[in-house]
Amino acid sequence: MERHVAGSGRRWSSAAMSTGLRVAIMTDETGWHTGRLKKAFRARDVDARCVDLAECRIDTTWAPHGLAIPGFGHAMPDAVFVRGIAGGTFEQVTLRLGILHALRECGVPVYNDARAIERSVDKSMTSFLLNLHGVPTPATWAGESTAFAQRVLMREVAANRRVVLKPLFGSQGKGLRRLGASRRDGSLAPLPSLRTSGQVAYLQRYVEGERPGFDWRVLVIGGRAVAAMRRVGGKGWIHNFAQGAQCEPAQLDPVLADTAVQASRALGLDYAGVDLIPSPHASIESGDTRPLVLEVNGVAAWRGLQSVTDLNIAAALVDDLLDRKLAAHVPVPLKTGDGLT
Ligand SMILES: Nc1ncnc2c1ncn2[C@@H]1O[C@H](COP(=O)(O)OP(=O)(O)O)[C@@H](O)[C@H]1O
Ligand SMILES: [Mg+2]
User: Where is the ATP-grasp domain (predicted)?
Assistant: First the structure.
């Protein structure tokens, strides 16, 4: 006997007035983003409700699939939108990501998929994959050895360069340290103890730029770059919106758009917020004008970007989830008697 465990078996159809589809928005906080998403889902006649990943449970006595999602009873959502994964202990985060993996194993489309989120949350894996796929990104080193990190720093300083020490799982421009000789007085910022960064050194070559500095945030949805902004100022050289940078609309020129799309593809993300910076080596003479990708966000916020674009970002995300990801989705049949009930 076979049965479909993903969702309720209802399929979305553009002609239908009410789709009967039920979507879980995974988030630990409700606010502006979830409000926009719920409105966009409502506009598509989809019932979307916020679910805290911390309240989901793996429960092998919970028939038929052993996964309890609050608000969905014994059924599964038809799709999941991952809006936020709260920080916590290593065990808590593992369990929360495990729930997203389990949903996929049950045949539920998860947007973004947990594997892609894991790749993007781990900055070292992001750098590795960008480099592997030929996406331009600054030289980056990650390891557990203080001696190795020290050697990298010395080598870079000897070449008159600086490096940025970043938390492996950092976000919003928090905890970044720029190391190397200060431009002002030539004093050397030494390598801090790795105790402050979880005993791991993630070092990225600092990309020198003009003053006042800026970077780009490009939003890629379903393999297409849909909006871009320049983030100007902020906290010194750190241009995050959360650090007070001013958002300005930016032209999505083909090179910027292509580079962001390649970055999103390298990580296997459905949608991504890609941070880029002008490359000091870019030139028309060299034939390479591509910017450098600094990081790729798989659970990207878009409030700053929404303030400078006419595109309804929440609606674009919802449309991509429903019209591309869910439309292409084939429910996974699970057989009873295979240990899953
Ligand atoms: N290698 C670098 N060279 C120059 N500026 C950088 C570099 N890395 C980060 N920055 C600046 O710091 C910001 C935050 O870095 P990022 O890697 O995106 O971490 P977070 O996850 O905290 O946003 C970037 O948007 C950029 O403005
Ligand atoms: Mg960033």
Answer: 127-322
Distance (angstroms) between ligand 2 centre and the Cα of 130 equals 15
Same domain, 215 and 201: no
Q: pLDDT of 244-275, one tens digit each? A: 999 999 999 999 999 999 999 999 999 999 99
Q: How far apart are CA 33 and CA 39, in angstroms?
A: 10
Ligand at shortest distance from the CA of 231: 1
Residue 228 pLDDT class (50, 70, 90 cuts)? very high
Full residue range of the structural domain in which residue 241 is found = 211-298
Tokens of 283: 């030139």
The CA–CA distances, whole Å, from 275 to 19, 46, 244 equal 36, 31, 16
SS3 101: helix
**Rounded CA separation 156/162 (Å):** 6
Residue 225, domain member (yes or no)? yes
Which ligand 1 atom lies nearest to the CA of residue 242?
23
